[in-house]
Amino acid sequence: MKTFIVALQKGGALVPASFELITAAKEIGGEIITVILADDAAPLAQELASRGAGKVLAVSASGLAHLNEEAYAKVLAELIGRETPDLVIGPATFYGKALFGRLAAKVGGAMASDVSKISLQGEQLVATRLQYGGSVVADVVNNADKPFFVTVRPKIYPESQDGDGEVVSEAVDEALVEAGSTVKEVKVESSGAVSVTEADVIVAAGRGIKGTENLPMVNQLAESLGAAVGASRAVIDAGWMPYSAQVGQTGKTVNPKLYIALAISGAIQHLVGMRTSKTIVAINKDKDAPIFNVANYSIIGDAFEVVPALTKKFQAELKA
Ligand SMILES: Cc1cc2nc3c(=O)[nH]c(=O)nc-3n(C[C@H](O)[C@H](O)[C@H](O)COP(=O)(O)OP(=O)(O)OC[C@H]3O[C@@H](n4cnc5c(N)ncnc54)[C@H](O)[C@@H]3O)c2cc1C
Fold it and tell me: Quick check: CB of 304 below 6 Å from ligand 1?
């Protein structure tokens, strides 16, 4: 078994899900090869090697500073052709999913997206994923004689903390890095804010918060818990919060330790993006709201009374 990990970086820092992929590869066993593409990949490759990433291919080029799917797919397809892995894994983040669809098509392998477990059953690799809004658990196998491309849902596997590895600098043909488009700059939407895909705790707001005038209430609860702020699509469509906060089928898939759904009804398109959260707390004034079907803790009440009370309690705990 040979697993090829595509580690990703953002702004020169490794995406934490990269370390989770190492754990997934270790659990499968066999040879591990990891690749990192950046303008200066060497220090990132060193960090990956110290966390047990096996042979780490460091590919440096100025055109690889930002994730450009076309350039990245060309470089990765070349390396995969050289290394001939059985399995290619990457993070099921926004960028990871966009890259892997293109990459699998380029190499001609089968693809399973947003997988929650990869296992070896006999000789067969099995990727387990939720389908149809989480109502079906599917085991996906690869029948092609090409590598199996799998994106792994963040926050399922713990980060690999240590292990062995060696760094190998890989030179790539400049022509491979050239693409029809160039990413010149990436602007971070709000500095310092934790992204919902990386957060351990998320406070997500729904249409029931009624308007932007009530966002401070949501933000204060999030601050008291060190949480990221997410939202349902209704909130995004109303223009109350940026698209980057949207959780669900057409937004982000999240898997935090704690998800607090605040005045969110629990439409299937929302549930599909958050139902694997470890603990779900739902606050809704409608006792029949579908969100309560997936909640571990249900608070039936008016958000405008419950949220300030919770915030006060958490702030007091923080001070104590
Ligand atoms: C193709 C497609 C893709 C979609 N993708 C997504 C997606 O990615 N993410 C997503 O979220 N949705 C998505 N949707 C939309 C989805 O179907 C729902 O319309 C949306 O999730 C509803 O958002 P909401 O729960 O905030 O609003 P509502 O359904 O209007 O629910 C508001 C809730 O707030 C409660 N409430 C009101 N006032 C209070 C109060 N004072 N205190 C406590 N509770 C209160 C109400 O009881 C209600 O349950 C998609 C839809 C389609 C068709």
Answer: yes
Q: CATH number for the domain including 20?
A: 3.40.50.620
- Give pLDDT, residue 130: 85
Q: Are residues 246 and 153 in the same domain?
A: no
Q: How far is C-alpha 106 from the chain's CA centre?
A: 23
Percentage of the chain surpassing pLDDT 70?
98
Domain identity same for 207 and 315: yes
Q: What is the pLDDT of residues 42-94, one digit of tens each?
A: 999 999 999 999 999 999 999 999 999 999 999 999 999 999 999 999 999 98
Amino acid at 118: I
Nearest protein CA to atom 43 of ligand 1, as residue: 284
pLDDT value at position 176?
A: 87
293 and 154 together in one domain: no
- Distance CA(107)–CA(11), nearest Å, equals 27
253 lines ligand 1 (CB under 6 A): no
CATH number for the domain that contains residue 243: 3.40.50.1220
Query: Does the C-beta of 246 come closer than 6 Å to ligand 1?
Result: yes
pLDDT tens column, 80-137: 999 999 999 999 998 999 999 999 999 999 999 999 999 999 989 999 998 876 778 9
Atom of ligand 1 nearest to the CA of 289: 49
Contact of 203 with 262, CB cutoff 8 Å: yes
The pLDDT of residue 317 is above 90 = no
Please state the domain count of the chain. Answer: 2
Maximum Cα–Cα distance across the chain = 61
Determine which residue's CA is closest to atom 53 belonging to ligand 1: 269
Residues in the chain: 320
Same domain for 156 and 112, yes or no, is yes
